[in-house]
Design goal:
Number of strands of chain A: 17
Oligomer: heterodimer
Largest sheet of chain B: 2 strands, antiparallel
CATH topology of chain B: Ammonium transporter fold
Strand content of chain A: 15-25%
Structural class of chain B: mainly alpha
Order of helices and strands of chain B: HHHHHEEHHHHHHHH
Distance between the termini of chain A: 55 Å
Strand order of the largest sheet of chain A: 1-14-13-17-15-16
Distance between the termini of chain B: 30 Å
Radius of gyration of chain B: 26 Å
CATH architecture of chain B: Orthogonal Bundle
Number of helices of chain B: 13
CATH class of chain B: Mainly Alpha
Number of domains of chain B: 1
Mean pLDDT of chain B: 80
Helix content of chain A: 25-40%
Low-confidence stretches of chain B: 1-29, 175-181
Bound molecules: iron/sulfur cluster
Largest interface: A-B, 110 and 66 residues
Helix content of chain B: 40-55%
CATH architecture of the domain at 117-279 in chain A: 3-Layer(aba) Sandwich
Number of strands of chain B: 2
Shape of chain A: globular
Strand order of the largest sheet of chain B: 1-2
Order of helices and strands of chain A: EEEEEEEEHHEHHEHEHEHEEHEEEHHHHH
């Protein structure tokens, strides 16, 4: 049978072998954590604790300030040392709650299994998910309870679980599917229940045969959940591409998966949901792949949110001397870090350490009109033109050509033989256009 | 990767008192500085120079065969043209105060392609003039690599055709075959209705330009480029396909008057043009649909020129003609954005 996939896209070298067979290891409880009040899409949290206050693991320390927001929890027990700005992996600095541990890891309460999740109402599940501070763990960190609360007009009929992990190097989702397939299946069922859908689809790229087998086994008792092996291609994990690949629906331009009756969540998110709903456990840790040719011993570790990168790096034997780049996330969409003092946040799917050998050396040539970028763009855009219009600040043309549809997957810049920073320019263009739109909207109100 | 937006961390929450503005960061041992860049942090290994030099390599079998076929003299013609092209490139880079672009290989390629379309006995000095024209007027005047509208080598060749029309239509037979001056298969057919055996045409034992006589060697090089994806397969497919079908239709209508379609395919510079000239990335459309239109257009123009016009050859004009339409084709063949509603 021909494997399913979406149209176009690219085939970057995978480098999964570095860590794909490394079993999950639990990082020792760190001595101190830095928990940013803002690690998700939406409004930042309001700190609920004060300097000097003692906290227990799992205690809520930051309250969400809007619907699209998510609370944060203490991830170790100890004392709040300070609430201040520290280096943040997504920017220069961000407000964080700095907790020094007491070494006891005392939990706020012991978790007992909730009586029976199957008796819970939809709203109750969503509420538990919200309280547990769960956000998309694939890297986007969109609050999960928002996804689970579609407006009434949208008829949701399918839940898609994203097990593609299409970014090269990263293996966190892979390991979770292999080692925690029961939890993944449970989370899937809970999410399906919350959405009140009868069909569940799990898309896994077929470079992870062990994950496919494990998931098939874990879901074999539920014939409304189907595991679909997919052809390996980047960016299959992008929601629109994944929905196209698994159930062949086209999310309309400017639309959301909801518009075609689908909600997508990531493997890690499903596990977090299962733990939140059945054990009342808030999101205080996540799986992080530490990989790349710059790390001595690549690993997949379960780390508490707020643990400095340095701890994880040390746990993996440290960096090689010629490591020059540290990336949070994968090589296609990840964000470079200038320091190892940034903490693991909810969106940290991986820490990629690259040596000077793996870092691309940019030499930009003129665009030779080869059309390769067009052939790669999964959104069927004209990256060469978009980048050009963004560069010369012709916002009107850029918008007419659909710049706002770009999912910033980077496929175009990946293939360009002239090494033109296409997605980088497009990204700036999108920011500027959205900014102008926001201003225009304010002006008319 | 569920969504592309990233949270913006350095906004302060509305309801807290301002944090003290003391310098931030954990004071520890001095940190090594890591490189910062915007994603993606990976790229393919294809680069412009690699593409250009690969195309040059793919042309080599045909060039070497040209030397074997027409003698050592050909090597000198090739050198004259390539050196002139490179020298022009250097001079113009200097004049415009730009970094030298010789290493990208495009000037060498232009010089080489130009000689491939010249008759074996074409004077070397004229070939050099053509190369200078190709680079200066064909490419650099538009702004250099990537900005030109017409295939520079073909523009150079068109210039030579206009300036030295007799010299450029004087053909020599391959070494070892009787006459010094001979006709090309197309010329023989057009003017004398003599057919040349297909096998000779395929293998290259015929009169013609330096690099375009052996269809076999050109196809080998061309297919290599298609496999490497350095040339878009749709272009030779649509170009050759159109020639075959249109030529075939006319032949069915009147086999006395018109040659059969196989003859069309293997004669003149069609193979060279279809695989190496029409596929020039800069001067062909960027959209897949546009590429088909471009190919059909070239095929149609070629048949019209060959059968109804005054010239036996038509490859050069058909490509240059369609080059002119590329910007227009690009504009009207924009692919539909993913999820764009059908109108
Ligand atoms: S234009 Fe945007 S969507 Fe298209 S390949 Fe580039 S980054 Fe991806
Ligand atoms: S891939 Fe690069 S060189 Fe090719 S058309 Fe796109 S921008 Fe131009």
């Amino acid at each position: 049978m021909k494997l399913k996939t979406f149209k176009k896209g690219v085939h970057p070298e995978e480098y999964k072998f570095l860590s794909e067979h490394k079993t999950l290891e639990r990082l020792p409880i760190p001595e101190e954590v830095f928990i940013p009040v803002h690690q998700h899409i939406g409004a930042p949290c309001r700190p609920l604790v004060e300097k000097g206050q003692t906290v227990k693991t799992g205690e809520i320390i930051g309250q969400s300030t809007g619907f699209v927001s998510s609370p944060i929890h203490a991830t170790i027990s100890g004392t709040v040392k300070t609430i201040d700005n520290f280096p943040h992996p997504l920017g220069i600095n961000g407000l964080m709650i700095h907790i020094t541990g007491d070494g006891k890891d005392e939990w706020i309460k012991s978790f007992d299994e909730t009586s029976n999740w199957e008796n819970l109402l939809t709203d109750e599940i969503v509420d538990l998910v919200q309280k547990a501070g769960i956000v998309g763990l694939g890297g986007a960190a969109f609050p999960t309870h928002v996804k689970l609360s579609p407006s009434k007009e949208k008829k949701i009929d399918t839940f898609v679980l994203n097990g593609c992990e299409c970014e090269p190097y990263l293996t966190a989702d892979h390991r979770m599917m292999v080692e925690q397939s029961e939890e993944v299946a449970l989370g899937t069922r809970i999410l399906m229940k919350a959405l009140n859908v009868s069909r569940g689809v799990i898309g896994v790229e077929n470079n992870k045969p062990d994950a496919i087998a494990a998931m098939e086994k874990a879901t074999s008792a539920f014939n409304n959940i189907e595991v679909i092996p997919l052809k390996v291609k980047y960016p299959q994990g992008a929601e629109k591409m994944l929905i196209k690949a698994v159930i062949n629906r086209n999310v309309p331009t400017g639309g959301l998966p909801l518009d075609v009756g689908v909600v997508v969540n990531n493997v890690g998110t499903a596990i977090a949901v299962a733990e939140a709903v059945t054990k009342n456990k808030p999101l205080i840790e996540r799986v992080v792949s530490i990989t790349g040719d710059g790390i001595k011993e690549p690993k997949n570790v379960i780390a508490r949110i707020g643990t400095p990168f340095q701890n994880l790096i040390d746990f993996c034997g440290g960096l090689t001397d010629n490591t020059v780049k540290i990336i949070m996330g994968g090589p296609m969409m990840g964000i470079t870090q200038h320091t190892l003092n940034v903490p693991v946040i909810k969106a940290t799917s991986g820490i990629l350490c690259l040596t000077d050998l793996s870092v691309i050396k940019h030499k930009e040539y003129p665009c030779i009109q080869c059309g390769t970028c067009i052939g790669a763009c999964p959104m069927n855009l004209l990256p060469t033109r978009l980048a050009r219009f963004a560069q010369v600040e012709n916002w009107q043309m850029a918008e007419d050509l659909g710049i706002l549809n770009c999912v910033e997957c980077g496929s175009c810049a990946f293939v360009c033989p002239s090494q033109i920073p296409l997605v980088q320019r497009i990204r700036i263009g999108k920011l500027r256009i959205n900014e102008m739109k926001r201003k225009a909207k304010l002006a008319t109100v | 990767m569920e969504d592309t937006k990233q949270p913006i961390p350095n906004e302060e929450p509305a309801n807290t008192e301002k944090p003290k503005p003391k310098p931030v960061g954990k004071e520890k041992k001095p940190e090594p500085q890591y490189l910062l860049s915007s994603s993606p942090h990976m790229a393919t290994i294809d680069r412009v120079p690699k593409i250009m030099w690969t195309v040059i390599a793919a042309l080599m079998p045909a060039v070497v065969y040209g030397m074997y076929n027409f003698g050592f003299n050909v090597l000198l013609t090739v050198l004259a043209s390539v050196i002139a092209a490179v020298a022009t490139e250097i001079v113009i880079n200097k004049m415009r105060g730009r970094e030298s672009s010789v290493a990208d290989g495009s000037a060498v390629l232009t010089g080489l392609l130009l000689t491939m379309t010249l008759p074996p006995a074409f004077p070397k000095a004229y070939a050099a003039v053509g190369a200078v024209f190709a680079i200066a007027i064909g490419k650099q005047i538009f702004g250099g690599l990537g900005y030109n509208i017409f295939n520079p080598a073909l523009l150079g060749r068109a210039f030579l055709q206009a300036s030295f029309s007799v010299k450029i239509t004087t053909w020599t037979a391959p070494v070892g075959i009787d006459a010094i001056t001979t006709a090309t298969p197309l010329g023989s057919f057009k003017f004398e209705k003599i057919m040349t055996p297909y096998f000779d045409m395929f293998m290259g034992k015929i009169g013609g330009c330096i690099g375009e006589t052996s269809a076999l060697l050109i196809i080998i090089g061309g297919v290599y480029l298609l496999v490497k994806k350095y040339a878009d397969w749709r272009i030779p497919a649509s170009y050759l396909g159109t020639v075959f079908i249109l030529g075939g239709l006319l032949w069915i209508i009147n086999p006395e008057q018109y040659p059969d379609p196989v003859f069309h395919l293997f004669s003149g510079g069609l193979m060279l043009g279809a695989f190496f000239m029409a596929t020039d990335m800069v001067t062909s459309p960027v959209t897949p649909k546009g590429t088909w239109i471009y190919g059909f257009g070239m095929g149609a123009v070629l048949i019209i020129i060959r059968l109804f016009g005054g010239l036996p050859e038509g490859v050069m004009y058909s490509i240059l003609f369609m080059n002119a339409f590329v910007p227009l084709i690009n504009r009207y063949t924009r692919p539909k954005i993913f999820g764009e509603l059908k109108k």
